[in-house]
Amino acid sequence: DRPARFHRKFINLNDGDSAPSSPIRVMQWNILAQALGEGLDNFVQCPLEALSWSRRKYLILEEILTYRPHILCLQEVDHYYDTFQPVLAGLGYSSNFCPKPWSPCLDVEGNNGPDGCALFFDQSRFELLDSMNIRLSAMRIPTNQVAVVTLLRCRSTARCMCVTVTHLKARSGWEWLRSAQGSDLLRHLQNLVQKHAGSPTADPSSDIPLIICGDFNAIPAEEVYRRFITSPLSLDSAYKKLSQDGLTEPEYTTWKIRPTGECCATLDYIWYSRDKLRVDAVLEIPTEEQIGPNRLPSFSYPSDHLSLVCDFSFKEKE
Ligand code: NDP
Ligand code: CA
Description:
Strand content: 25-35%
Distance between the termini: 55 Å
CATH class: Alpha Beta
Largest sheet: 7 strands, mixed
Mean pLDDT: 95
CATH superfamily: Endonuclease/exonuclease/phosphatase
Number of strands: 15
Bound molecules: NADPH dihydro-nicotinamide-adenine-dinucleotide phosphate, calcium ion
Helix content: 10-25%
């Protein structure tokens, strides 16, 4: 008698244009750490039973398997070694995990270890060239937030791309820290694409395509968002493509109720190199009605954040 899973449709953006033969599907998702959901989050409208790991793990895996992304970027993973790594390896995914240095999960009794960011890719589609775990800094001081950066080569086209997953500092009052962390990540990526181009003076926007998935904990009006939009790396946010004008972010990517009130906001993004990649399709955001009056998580959806899924293809080289 549990409510039905959300039915979400892909919105195709390029009908009429030459249909891409095999787009690259990317999923971004903060899956909600098990220890945080049960121990610290205080989702007052969500029954504890809906938060049990025995229920949630199947819903999380079901969501992933429904869309079968080639690249899967997850935050708040505190069941990597015992669940996601082995299960997804059995389905043909290779992966890298970076735990947070001082994960708040460790403060919860009966925790399953630190949470962190995990990046999975379909081994039949991509070959791993390099992977780095990065601890983000703010004014040279290491922080508690991390990123996983991987360099992949598409086996069918031989083209390379750099995929990153991150989770920036949460809560209001920390806008400055998110901005500094975002700048640090952009600096790392700039260095990486320049190293790859083989020249320190190469135009950073002229080489390897980037995809950066994250829970930025920042609404589009925040400084860190502006830093990404205006970066010399020529990035754009894929989910803007869902809007009528193509320029507006969705109304929400997370929707939850805590004792302090309701939080409905856009905090999660899939950034991409706008000159090198084309967004072919974007998975719709569930409606308020689908999400329901008690918001997220719920018996029908295991996280307070929605998954973002889109299809990319390489733009032709000029
Ligand atoms: P963040 O502030 O970034 O948030 C941690 C988690 O809490 C996130 O996953 C976030 O989810 C969630 N969260 C956000 N808002 C709320 C809320 N209102 N109520 C409950 N949970 C919320 O954490 P930090 O990485 O800065 O770590 C903070 C904790 O880490 C400290 O409480 C401490 O326990 C520990 N720590 C310990 C240190 C030590 O020296 N021992 C040093 C540093 C940290 P989402 O992103 O989805 O919003
Ligand atoms: Ca959270």
